[in-house]
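ESCALATION

Customer reports they have been waiting on this structure for their group meeting. Please prioritize. Original submission:
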Amino acid sequence: MSTSFDATGIGQFAVKLNLASEAQVRDLLAELDDPGAPGEEMIRLMERKGVITPWQGGKVRKGDTDGYYLGGYRILYKIASGSFGRVYRGDDPRTGQVVAVKVLRNKWTMDKQKVDLFVREGKLGMTLRHQNVVSMLAVGQDPKTGQYYLVMEFVEGGNLRDLISIRKKIGVDESLRIMEECAAGLGGAFAKGLTHRDIKPTNILIASQGVAKLVDFGLAEITTMGGSVQLQKQSDKDDDVAVDRTVDYAGLEKATASKPGDVRSDIYFLGTVLYEMVTGEPLMPVTKDKQARMAARRYQQVEDTLANGGPAHGMPAELQRLIAKMVAFDPIRRYQTPAELVNAIQECRAKLGIGSVLAVRSRTAEGPHTLFVVEGNAKLQDAFREKFKAHGYRVLMSIDPGQPLRRFQQQPYHALIVDAGTVGEDGVEAYSRVLKEADTIGVDLAAILILNEEQESLRHRARQHKHGVVLIRPVTMKQLLEKLYELAPPPQAANTAEAG
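Update from on-call: job pushed to the front of the queue and completed.
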């Protein structure tokens, strides 16, 4: 429909949809040099210039007026799809934060059980904050389209299944590191009363920095009946919902007389994942036959498979003993809690001459080296972005003194600059609260508080911290950069300095 518009009409349509600003549209029309050019030319130019994504362009061509934003987050393009939902890459226009947006398929929106589970997953996820669990940022229903959505931390990288497929086997050192982080993430959830119920390689994400993160807590539980999981199949297209890993959980728990939701079941399936990482082969036969997956013999044979397969693959004895206890048929013989498993993995690593990763990583925020700036002056905002991006920082910006704490709780960043001279006394409180939160979760944060001369009396209200500093104007960008380099130099700092 919208392709019947000329270039000007498409530009106005994009502004109305909040996909482009009026200034951007003016510049694009000037570049076209013909406001009456066909609308398709304008769409292609907007895509080439990065004003809209090809996915957004496709919707504009169809004249769609909804679905570009959910919960204030902008939808950029689809990255995954299944029978239960679709996952999109998006961002927060307010901060620039990249996110993943999971949308429940329309065919499930009238199914109360599925909607309740979807929403429950989001709400439970928002209570869970751990560096080895993908953070949940928002859950809601769009008032215009009725779509249910979850907004999550976006993890640059891939899932463990893809990694195994590409590399065939993963070394013992790296496999134990990944498993230690998975167990730590499971422990963080268990401390909140949550179990996963769907441990498998596709639900373990490996960030580009190598950090393992668990995703999709509980989403595989579609219905519960009589204490065990039964999945309702609506059509042949729903096989990837109906034939789900929760069948494995149901089979294991039925065979061992365990209650659904037993964390030792998660530990069992972490053991099967660890074996597959090291050997490149599954510990249990792969089948979509639900009867075969529910059979007790499938789980009873695992210990024998490990006993034969471990030595055949040259598996170190210490590692084989670790996996054997994880996948013991009798739940009493397994590690009883994620914390116990973490300790066992660390002991195994020590005996194999491999150090633990948790102590090393626990003090450093993940992801690109990120600076959050609270600045009320528009010109200074531009100056901060230009200066610090050029020196290797990813810059997030807000005028709201409450935003840096909310953002840090969602996903910790590396450095903070608060200009209380332009945002007021609330900036002092924001500076102190974020430093306190960093100490609480055990992450190092470099923080700078800027005060005007007449605000110097507020210095005593700022939190005293070894990684924090209060500067009184006049302060130059060069001085700020030097101070930040002292507190938290970005990885690119040395190269940038040499190039500059």
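Sent to customer with the following note: Residues 84 and 105 are 6 Å apart (CA to CA).
Escalation resolved.
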